[in-house]
């Protein structure tokens, strides 16, 4: 159906399916602007799997499920699970066009065949009896094993073998009543809670209800009733055997410092102490888990600006009751180095002018005149002999030992005068080794 070239918009329409290629050619005359060409088509939504004829033998394609990829049911030796897509010819379309169709039949296919899980018997216990001999049972220790094609294998969690039932954990056994057997004591406590711990138990060979030499049981293996005899060492001592095995084979912790305390002093040289704990993988454990770890250094020096104090110069009164002056300077504590007075607390500065204090009691020598002389006195006038009074030195307790950079450790103390005037010759020492 063609509208003709006289129409403002030329239109070609086909109301039936096109069964062959359609070629559209546009004739352009002169320098006319190239026309715009639009086209659209309709595809039948017939969902039948077979070809759909339009009456002229034409086909609009057929729908079908095709496998695009596979998932595996297990990381080791699993079943391949197909992933289907809906196709029309070779084009993927919406899945709802194929919902009426069945998935194609697929032969069972295995995947991840490079490895396989299975149950493996790792150990057996000795025959466990309720009596000295006769029928009993052995414990079988099965573990899930991951086997690789290269022959290597590792133990993995039991749930990895969930596709296969776990074998029976016991099997019957018989101990003849005329054969020797081992009797064991209970395992002792582990001598360490982590790292390389050991525990022991004793074993005694019995034959015909008698304790005999271990030689008679030499062909009987040593194991635990739980079937785990891995790592057992045997030490013979007389008629007894000592069995040793490792225990608590888990990681130990290590000491770690959490934080440091403030300095013990506000100036000068002080000390800071550390708070620390036993850690394993960011978790705090009891101290016993760090017995094999060296403890950290928990004390360190903290150097702050120097401490300053007022230093008093020495003086000596020649006579009592007379004011004298002394030198008052700001100095660094311990070293005595003089610094600017502004570094010391001005309100605490001592006076530099003090009194020597009261005079000692005076002895008056009284002498009467010639007619009224008193025996023992030689003068008629009163004479006064004055001597200055000294105060007492007060020594405080010695401070902490400090190292001045050499091999000697020193400690110092503060020595003060109980009054404003003490005898320098009797002043106690201010430092000691």
From TrEMBL:
One of its GO terms (cellular component) is extracellular region. It comes from the Eukaryota. It is found in: Secreted. The keyword Cell cycle does not apply. Residues 1-43 form the ADAMTS/ADAMTS-like Spacer domain. Keywords: Secreted. This is ADAMTS/ADAMTS-like Spacer 1 domain-containing protein. It comes from Allacma fusca.
């Amino acid at each position: 159906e063609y509208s003709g070239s006289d129409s403002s918009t030329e239109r070609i329409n086909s109301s039936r399916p096109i069964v062959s290629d359609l070629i559209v050619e546009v004739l352009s005359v002169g320098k006319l602007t190239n026309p715009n060409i639009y086209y659209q088509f309709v595809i039948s939504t017939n969902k039948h799997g077979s070809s759909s004829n339009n009456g002229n033998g034409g086909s609009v394609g057929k729908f079908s499920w095709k496998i695009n990829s596979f998932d595996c049911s297990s990381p080791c030796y699993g079943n391949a699970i197909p992933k289907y897509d809906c196709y029309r010819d070779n084009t993927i379309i919406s899945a709802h066009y194929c919902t009426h169709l069945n998935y194609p039949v697929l032969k069972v296919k295995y995947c991840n065949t490079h490895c396989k899980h299975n149950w493996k018997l790792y150990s057996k216990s000795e025959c466990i009896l309720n009596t000295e001999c006769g029928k009993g049972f052995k414990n079988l220790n099965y573990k899930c094993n991951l086997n690789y094609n290269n022959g290597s294998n590792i133990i993995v969690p039991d749930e990895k073998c969930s596709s296969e039932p776990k074998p029976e954990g016991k099997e019957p056994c018989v101990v003849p009543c005329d054969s020797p057997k081992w009797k064991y004591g209970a395992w002792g406590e582990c001598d360490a809670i982590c790292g390389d711990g050991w525990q022991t138990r004793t074993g005694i060979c019995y034959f015909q209800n008698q304790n005999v030499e271990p030689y008679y049981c030499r062909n009987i293996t040593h194991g635990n009733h739980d079937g785990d005899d891995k790592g057992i060492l045997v030490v013979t001592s007389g008629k007894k055997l000592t069995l040793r095995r490792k225990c608590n084979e888990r990681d130990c912790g290590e000491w770690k410092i959490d934080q440091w305390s403030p300095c013990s002093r506000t100036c000068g040289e002080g000390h800071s102490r550390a708070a620390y704990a036993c850690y394993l993988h960011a978790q705090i454990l009891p101290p016993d888990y760090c017995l094999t770890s060296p403890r950290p250094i928990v004390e360190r020096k903290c150097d702050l600006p120097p401490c300053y104090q007022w230093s008093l110069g020495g003086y000596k009164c020649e006579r009592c009751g007379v004011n004298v002056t002394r030198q008052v300077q700001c100095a660094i504590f311990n070293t005595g180095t003089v610094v600017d007075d502004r570094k010391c607390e001005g309100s605490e500065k001592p006076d530099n002018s003090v009194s020597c204090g009261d005079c000692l009691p005076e002895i008056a020598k009284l002498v009467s005149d010639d007619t009224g002389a008193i025996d023992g006195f030689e003068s008629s006038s009163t004479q006064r002999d004055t001597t200055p009074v000294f105060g007492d030195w007060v020594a405080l307790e010695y401070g902490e030992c400090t190292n001045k950079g050499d091999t000697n450790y020193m400690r110092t103390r503060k020595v003060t005068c109980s009054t404003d005037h003490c005898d320098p010759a009797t002043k106690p020492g201010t430092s000691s080794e």
